[in-house]
Structures are given as C-alpha cells and as structure tokens.
Sequence to fold (550 residues):
Amino acid sequence: MLKHFLLVVAMFTCISLYSQKTQFPWEFGFQAGLSSLQGDMVVSDIAPLNQPSLHAGAMVRRRLGGMLALRAHLMFGGLNSDDAKSDDATRVARGASSSTSVIEPGLVLEFEPFAAKRFEGGVFKKALSPYLSAGVAYGIWGDVDTDFGSEAGTTLAATDAAADADDSGGVVFPIGGGLKYYLSPKSSLGLDLSYRITGDDLIDGFSEAGNPEKNDTYVFTALTFATGFGKPDTDKDGLYDEEDACPTEAGPLNTMGCPDTDSDGIADKDDDCPEVAGLANFGGCPDGDGDGVRDIDDVCPTEAGVKALGGCPDGDGDGIADKDDKCPTEAGIASLMGCPDGDGDGIADGDDDCPAEAGTAANGGCPDSDGDGIIDKNDECPDEAGVAERNGCPLPKDRAETLAERVTRYSEMLDTDNDGMSDFEHVSVDSLNGTISIDRIYFPTNNSRLNRPDRMILEEIDRFLALPGASEFSIRYEGHADRRSSDEYNQALSERRSAAAEEYSIDKGATPSKLSTIGFGEQRPLGEKLRENRVVVPVASEPTRMVKVN
Fold:
C-alpha cells in the first residue's frame, strides 16, 4: 500500500509542475483543532462529537490554476474511546476504553470553484470560498492502550492483542471539505472537516470484542491559516507579470490577462465592438439572432431568418415570410393565406373545431364515429353508440353489489347447513361494514409458536376459503408486537408470527396464492395493553362483485 501512496505523490507532483501558474502558487499554513475516532466504542453518530481530542498539523499547498490545488500535510492528533460515555447501557456495562494517537503524512487534491473570484476585475476582494477535498495519506498509529472491560470483553482480548501486535499503520483516504475566508490577496483563515476512510479495525485495539465487520475511521475538525508566496502580479489578475500580455491592466486568463469589457473572449484591443459581446468571425461584433447576418445588416435583427428574406424568418417553411403569413407557425396552403388544413376536410384548422380529425361541416368539422348523434370529442364512449344522458355511453348492463346484498350473501355462505345460523365460531360477518371478520390470534411474550386455540382459528379460516362462494377471497396475516425490545427485533418478531400462521394454513391444505403476510412490528399498536399487541390479525378481502341490472 505504501508503494501506491508514493505513486500518487509522484503523479500529483507532475501535475503541479505542468499546471497553469496563478498568483501566489505556493502556500504554507498550519491548522489546529479536534480529532475524533469512530471505532468499536462509538458514543455519537456525529463523528466530530465522538470524544474529541486535540490535534495540530502543517501543510504546503500548490495552486493548480483557478479552481484546483494540491495540498501536502503532516498531522498529529489523539484518538480516544470510552464505553463509559456511551448512551448504550450494554456498552456502559462492557466498560471498554482505548487511547492512542496518529501521525499522518498525506496528499490531498482540493476543488475550490470560486477561488479566482477574489481577484475578479483585477481587484482583490475579501471573500468566503467553499471547497471539497479528497486524497490519500498514511496513518501511523501510536501504541494503543486498550482496556477490554468486562469478562465478555476480556474473553476476546487475546485475539485483539495478537492482531494488534503488527498493526502500526496503513493507507487512509481523506475526504472532506471546508470554507476559507481570504483576508488578503495571499492569506486566508479557514474551517476544515476531513473524514478518514481506513482499512483497519484495530486502531482502537478493539475488533473481535467489538464490531469485526466495520473498520475504524477518524475525523479531523480544525481551524486553518495559510499564506501564499511566489512571483509578482502587478494588476492582481492571477497571472504573473512575465506571462501577462497586459501586465498593468487586469484581465481574465482566457485573454492572457488583457481586459475584455464585454466578456466575449476577445481582448478589447482586438475587439471591433468592445462594449457589446460578439463573435470572433464578426470582429467581435454581435449577430443577435444567430442567422449569419450581422445585426446592422439584418432587417429583423432580433429574429433568426434567411438571407433570401432579408434576415427575416419563415418559421413554418411554407415560402411565406412570417410578417405576411396569417399562420406563421404552421405550414399552410396559399388558398388559405398560409394556414393549414391538417385533416383535409376543406375547413381551415383555425375554423375547425376538430382540426386533427376529418369531419363534416354540419358538426363543425368534427367526426361522430359511432353515429349516435354525439360528436366524438363530447362522447365518452366514441366507439359505442350511446345516449345523451350518459354522455354518449350505453346504458350499463351490471352494477356493484350493495352492502345489504353482500351481507346477505356472506351470511348464507357461512350457514352451510341452511339452518339460519352460522356454522363458524371464529369467522363472522361484519354487517356494519359488509366484510368478513376473523378472530385475532394471540401469542405469548417474545413467542411466535402457535398453540391449539390458534390452530383452531387457522383451520377454520382454511375451511372458510374452501367454501364454494369464497373462491375470490384472499387472507392477509398481519403480525404485530408490543413495544418491549428494539424496533428491529419487534419487526422481525411480528414477521415470524404472521409467517407461522401462513405456514400452518398451507400445511393444512390452503392454496398459497390465497395467502400473504406482513409484519408491522410495534409501529401500529392495536391497544394500550401489551397482550392486545402480541397478535396476528387475519384480514379477509374480496374484489367488488358486480350484479346484473334488471
């Protein structure tokens, strides 16, 4: 990994040697602030707030044009962790802690899109400038002092200690950003936040006894100060005098430091129209409508046109200039003064109520496809002859089943021996809502096993699904849990409960396609008592049934 680090250093050094020069290309600075470790004893999810220690560092920065800079740094900081400061009771009980330090040489590329703005117009202005950074570094860890805490921690301490014996450092990848405030043309104060991605899980000496799946990381949060040095730039436009075509007049880089008043990329000394942005092939003068005719020669200077029409447009390409065309945005025919007849029904589109469909004059140019006397655009069923009171649609042949009809049908379905009484104990008709209601299945605390009363309910559900009139019904088992334990555990428990109900129904012969499950965990409490929330709720549903209209 060290070879890779040195290769990156060499690459960025080459970039700096051949990059475009700017004012004060080199900067030296230092920083001081806080260093924080995100390891196996995390106190806060906000990395800079995780038991911060002091750190300091020095840096040298090389400007690579107006927006990029390459920064070499050397950092030193402390890295501490302590379970005793955690909000997690399990970690407090574990009682582990660690203390170490890091020395870090590194190379970082900064992207600062607004850095050149401080010299805009050739005059320095104090300014805030944000930046992003990323690079590569080598972290050299100090000897870690680790206390594994409780017996559970010390059981794995030997494993961590053996792994830690050869763990003295590694390649890290700094990513971050910050904000600079330029005090003068070459000096700045800043706030920098940089996060380190590592491939090491033993910076805090704690891995097998902690979280072996996640590598340790650390963060530097600091105030910075930097000052520049380099060759003179008399007009303060970002170019050395020796490279500036106009060293006493501030100008942008793309015109070699000469003024460009209209910002058209042509220096004023070479621009025939220095006050108005133009094109190089017109000597710096504009062609406002971009039609290849200079504005001073264009009859219609604000509208792109063709030379044959004196620079005026023919938008629809029908051979009639827009100013003489009654329909300048639509190609038309001479007999209609340049207006179109898109459907070819002999009626100009502007006078045709249905210009995209051929129709008759009696219907204002609109069609009546089904011949029911209602034109298609007003006909909700244009391909079926209908009646006016239904907006051109035919009278319905069926309708949705009413609540009373559905309740009667469900009651007769559950009365299998036709004695006027339901033959089900746990399945009933909700006559108020017109639905099938099924008793809830209750579970003991932290349990997803079915007892005999639960199985009786499920067997009765399977018997209901086998009824001749229940072929369109489906059952969804909705699992719930009380608020004891974590959200994640309760979610999984509710899913196991609903799955247990589904599996039992399938084992008893229910069709799998008629069943589904969902777990709500503790997110949808069904009551204030704990028992009321340790349930699976079977929900029966059926599509709306249609009946014939007499």
